[in-house]
Amino acid sequence: MLPNKVASSVEEATADIPEGARIMVGGFGFPGTPEALVKALLDRGVANLTCICGPWYAGARRTIDASALIASGQVSRVISAPPVAPGPRSGATDPSSEDDRLHLEIMPQGTLAERIRAGGAGIGGFYIPTGLGTAYEEGKEKMNIGGVDCIFEEPIKADYALIRAQAADTMGNLVYRLAQRNWNPIMATAAEVTIAQVDEIVAPGMLDPELVITPGIFVDRIVISGGANDPT
Q: Which CATH code fits 10-122+155-224?
């Protein structure tokens, strides 16, 4: 029998995410953000989270993304690329914030992506010259490779990944559209449990296999929900 990974609601899909969980949140603004899944955590008040995310979106369109969890005080640690221009929640998301309740680990965007990719691929880490000669290299192992000094970066993994895709089949194979192919595909590979918010679910065999970016083996649950800002 083929697996059926469809959850009946976002509440069911996220019900087992506990306090203290380490979560990845996909997206770089709408429509790549799993807004409904994030809102479910907001509504439950799940606290003491470690949140791994890309730069926080600060566009004109208000997006329910990782910054909403940070602003609500549900996040104790953030692992992220530098935020974009401060938005309405800048007091909670600005790395210069004096709020010592929030631990920030900020790194270059490409380094973050590769660390997540390494986590998903089972790679024990990698050497990269990015950040050399800055405060970012402090405490990290260094090596000269081919005449280039590099610093060692460890992989990043999570307990849960909350991601967004356009369509899925009931087995969890995912097809993305446009900006949905930002952090979502790599985060799907690097978590113990991956939960995908999608706009459409079809029967197995209905997706063009050439368009499937995330195979169902990486996806544990799927749920249909347009999210708070979906124009439909």
A: 3.40.1080.10
